[in-house]
Design goal:
The complex is a heterodimer. By secondary structure, chain A is α+β, with helices and mostly antiparallel strands. Chain A contains two helices and four strands. Classes of the chains: A alpha+beta, B mainly alpha.
């Protein structure tokens, strides 16, 4: 398993308010339509931790994607661009 | 209904509500045993105990009959699964086992154990497993046979009609279009509808609420919890937030965390009003919040009152410490970030936690400390884990760290840590078979503890009782017998006093093992019967707590098996041996397994199965070689192995092994006997007589008088070879005289003394009854295995009658029996009439048969 942190994009149904967002301090959030897009650098264990947290909070997970560092994906914050 | 039903759906889908509604349905013919797996359960033993308790609750056996399932430090999962299955089989009528939140069971070995249970459920039992995400259970066999049903999120979702019914049931008046919007917004998600119903109840304008809710893009859960919280009075909001960091809460704890009285009323009110607060017990004293709800409350607490969180954890930890709930106390101390305090708390209670059967929980708490942190207190806890896992070198290293640290602490603390470390060192030394020297170092354990507070004394009670058990055990294994007996007795008494039945069983079991050597130098009337009685007491106590198949009782079952074999009761001995083997499944220590093989060897040798005996003795010797020091039974084991080799004709191999022994070992009575056996096999009876000379004149050290019996028999066999019948009879008579009081049979069987005994003219022995018994056994008519012998439907045979009864298998006439017993013929006749009446038989041969069945001829019935 790759131990180095990589940029991830996670899309969730609905807008996350301040309480929900407090559960993901390592991730940057943006609203995209009726979705919330979370992005950040995560290693594998942090990623699974985030997913477990989402499960516990009953969030609807729509998409999860590992970003390639060369492209600047829509909604990525400055940490993700090279 | 399918054999196993799996409900797999996300948080808040209404799994638990479904289960409860199902179980509470009026007229429900089946009974439900419900287990809720607590958050992050890493302790399989706690899980299984919960399950067993739930099953027992419906069978009604748990009504304070003292047989409550209890935890042990050495948990045997397969035995536990069998126990649950047995209890389930006893439930009259249909029963359903419900396991909720199965995804919280984190122990890696748990799924396999669970599958064992699920695939072996009795026909009238079913299981329902609820989980938030699919848990990998290998249930494909059930799936193939159509015995597995699955319920998933879509099946649990409310329909629009059900949404309207829910609203109506909650007394909420909402237009059809309003209900439709609510349904669309929540997508029929149970938690969302439940929260919405809470906010809508008593809302001044429900239509507006639904419109605003539908117009919001926020996630359903967060929106609704915010709304719901806002509608609560400030003290309720505050209570919910501050107590959210507890996995379970009661009124007292909530008062402590909020700093206000009256919390219990609030909690009761919340439970009555909504489904997000539920009580955990019938008395409604402990409550827990729905997981999703609690998680959101915790986030809110961290966001709004971050500076108070550590203090809240500290207060909770204080309460749990005071109430003896150490695992929770450590967890909250860790959460407060007070790592050093948490380490100390864990180390102080390590023995108690282990005795409470929470060893796995303890190791999980250990893993929660930050890596790289310097917490020397934890070395002790680590050493305990290593010992359980059989990592002896790591255990030794951690103990060394703990020892060095102890020296830097206050004198009082030094003393406590010292006792703990010494206790673990003893257990380490025993596992390594290296007891020399260690016992001397830990003699200070003998001294009583004094001058401490009540709490310290309670804490030290566990510590001291464990220390006494370990010390006594070590002494028993290295033959420091008077001390062993004293320490184990003291340990058992203390264990009883502080209500630690596990330690009491442990001490009693080791005590029965010690007794087999105690006073074995000379035959005393019935010492084996007394030992067996002690074994049975220890086993009975273990059985009462459901530990009959755990390592802790193995020394007792083993000793019982050993004495049975020594008394020639081979079938019953074999049964106890099998039970011992079962109990030792989870024990990895070579020390006690060695005894297991030794006893199996004795059994085979007694039955004349020499190749099998040789193999068992060989295995025992191999295990002995893994132990560092010399052990109690080494000479016996080697001696018997050599004799068996010789009797199989492998005299060359026997001689070679003999030559490899050191002088001390070679000079022991057991090895001298082996030399005699080799000489006899080589056709050198004179050499055999020479070999046993030192044993018979008492100069060679012996383990017990059984060695002496063996030596007389070997001498008798040698005389017989030399054609000296008189001397042969004389030696046999000496052996019989020693064997009489315990009715020891094994040496006669192992040495092959059947003909030697058979040739003794009847009038030349004072031990006719014993001779007849032994010959019977050697002819292969071993006593029938004890399958619940019909309890004698008669008054007890008196000791005098028993003496007469013992002569019935002989071919002595009644006048001859009268002569043997120095009583009148009339007396013998009276006794015989009484015996026949009590046994409900008519003649001598059926009396003998009946007496055998009732085991009245066996030694332990001698009074």
């Amino acid at each position: 398993m790759d131990p180095t942190p990589a940029p991830y994009l996670i899309r969730i149904k609905g807008h996350l308010g301040p309480t929900m967002l407090a559960a993901f301090p390592k991730l940057a959030a943006r609203h995209r339509g009726t979705h919330t897009v979370l992005t950040g650098l995560l290693d594998q264990s942090a990623l699974y931790g985030v997913l477990a947290e989402m499960e516990a909070l009953g969030l609807d997970l729509l998409e999860i994607r590992r970003l390639t560092p060369h492209r600047t994906p829509p909604g990525a914050d400055h940490r993700l661009s090279r | 209904m399918a054999k196993v039903t799996v409900i797999s759906a996300p948080a808040g889908s209404g799994k638990t509500s479904l289960l409860r509604a199902w179980a509470d349905r009026p007229g429900q013919p089946r009974r439900f045993a419900l287990v809720q797996v607590p958050r992050g359960q890493q302790d399989t033993q706690q899980f299984w105990l919960d399950l067993l308790r739930a099953v027992r609750q419906i069978t009604g056996v748990d009504d304070g009959d003292g047989a409550a399932p209890a935890a042990t430090p050495d948990f045997n999962a397969p035995a536990m699964v069998d126990r649950v299955l047995a209890e389930l089989a006893d439930v009259p009528g249909e029963v359903t086992l419900v396991i909720d939140d199965l995804h919280e069971l984190r122990a890696p070995e748990a799924p396999a154990q669970l599958i064992r249970l699920l695939t072996a459920l009795p026909p009238h039992a079913h299981a329902i497993l609820a989980m938030r995400h699919d848990v990998r259970l290998r249930l494909h066999k059930l799936r193939l046979t159509g015995e597995l049903a699955e319920i998933r999120a879509t099946d649990l979702r409310f329909s629009e009609r059900e949404t309207r019914e829910l609203l109506a049931a909650s007394g909420i008046a909402l237009s059809d279009s309003g209900a439709a919007r609510l349904y669309q917004r929540t997508e029929g998600w149970a938690a969302g509808l439940g929260l919405a119903a809470l906010s809508l109840a008593g809302h001044p304008d429900p239509e507006r609420f639904v419109a605003e809710f539908s117009g919001s893009d926020r996630t359903v859960a967060e929106y609704l919890i915010d709304e719901m919280l806002e509608r609560q009075p400030p003290d309720v909001q505050d209570l919910l937030l501050r107590t959210s960091l507890l996995d379970r809460v009661n009124g007292e704890l909530a008062d402590l965390l909020t700093g206000r009285p009256g919390s219990e009323q609030i909690l009761l009110g919340l439970e009555d009003a909504n489904a997000f607060v539920g009580s955990l017990d019938g008395e409604r004293t402990w409550f827990r919040y729905h997981h999703l709800f609690a998680d959101l409350l915790r986030l809110e607490l961290r966001r709004t009152l971050p500076e108070e969180v550590p203090a809240l954890h500290r207060r909770a930890a204080g309460w749990f410490t005071l109430h003896g709930q150490v695992a929770d106390a450590v967890r909250h101390t860790q959460a407060a970030g007070d790592w050093a305090d948490a380490a100390r708390l864990l180390a102080d209670h390590a023995f108690s936690l282990t005795l409470d059967g929470q060893a796995q929980t303890m190791q999980a708490l250990l893993r929660a400390f930050p890596p790289g942190g310097d917490f020397p207190e934890l070395a002790l806890v680590r050493a305990m884990g290593d010992l359980v896992q059989g990592r002896l070198d790591e255990a030794a290293a951690h103990l060394a760290v703990a020892e060095a640290y102890a020296e830097t602490t206050s004198p009082e603390r030094q003393r406590r840590l010292g006792v703990a470390i010494a206790s673990l060192q003893l257990s380490l030394a025993r596992r390594r078979g290296h007891l020399d020297g260690v016992i001397e170092q830990v003699k200070f354990l003998d001294a009583p503890v004094s001058g401490q507070s009540d709490q310290d004394i309670a804490l030290d009670g566990d510590l001291r009782a464990v220390a006494l058990m370990n010390l006594g055990t070590a002494e028993a294994w290295s033959l420091g017998l008077p001390d062993a007996v004293r320490h184990l007795k003291e340990g058992a008494a203390l264990a009883r006093e502080i209500s630690r039945p596990y330690l009491e069983v442990g001490c009693l079991a080791q005590l029965s093992f010690a007794y087999i050597f105690h006073g074995a130098d000379l035959p005393k009337s019935d010492s084996f019967a007394t030992t067996q009685q002690r074994c049975r007491e220890a086993i009975e106590l273990a059985d009462r707590y459901g530990w009959g198949a755990e390592p802790v009782v193995a020394p007792a079952t083993m000793t019982l098996a050993g004495t049975m074999v020594l008394l020639g009761e081979f079938d019953e001995g074999e049964q106890w041996l099998l039970r011992t083997e079962q109990a030792l499944q989870t024990d990895t220590g070579p020390d006690i397994r060695l005894l297991l093989h030794q006893t199996a060897g004795m059994l085979h040798a007694g039955r004349g199965r020499l190749p099998e005996a040789l193999e068992e003795f060989g295995t025992a010797q191999h295990l002995a070689s893994q132990l560092e020091g010399s052990q109690a039974l080494a000479s016996q084991m080697t001696g018997w192995r050599l004799s068996t080799l010789a009797r199989l004709g492998l005299t060359g191999e026997a001689r070679a092994a003999l030559a490899a022994l050191n002088d001390e070992r070679a000079g022991s009575g057991e090895i001298r006997n082996a030399v005699a056996a080799i000489c006899l096999a080589e056709g050198d009876p004179a050499g055999a007589l020479d070999a046993v000379h030192d044993v018979l004149d008492g100069t060679a050290p012996v383990l017990g008088y059984a060695t002496l019996v063996e030596a007389y028999l070997l001498a008798g066999l040698a005389h017989r070879e030399l054609g000296d019948q008189r001397a042969a009879h004389h030696a046999a008579e000496q052996a019989l005289a020693l064997a009489e009081s315990d009715r020891l049979v094994l040496p006669f069987a192992m040495t092959g003394s059947r003909e030697l005994l058979a040739e003794i003219p009847g009038h030349q022995t004072a031990h006719r009854a014993l001779v007849t018994d032994i010959l019977d056994i050697l002819r292969g008519s071993s006593l029938p295995a004890k399958e619940q012998p019909p309890s004698p439907p008669m008054e007890d045979i008196t000791p005098t009658e028993l003496r007469v009864l013992r002569y019935l298998p002989t071919n002595l006439s009644r006048p001859e029996i009268a002569g043997e017993l120095s009583v009148s013929l009339h007396t013998v006749n009276t006794h015989l009439r009484s015996i026949y009446a009590k046994l409900q038989v008519r003649d001598r041969s059926s009396a003998v048969r009946r007496a055998r069945e009732l085991r009245l001829l066996a030694a332990r019935h001698t009074r």
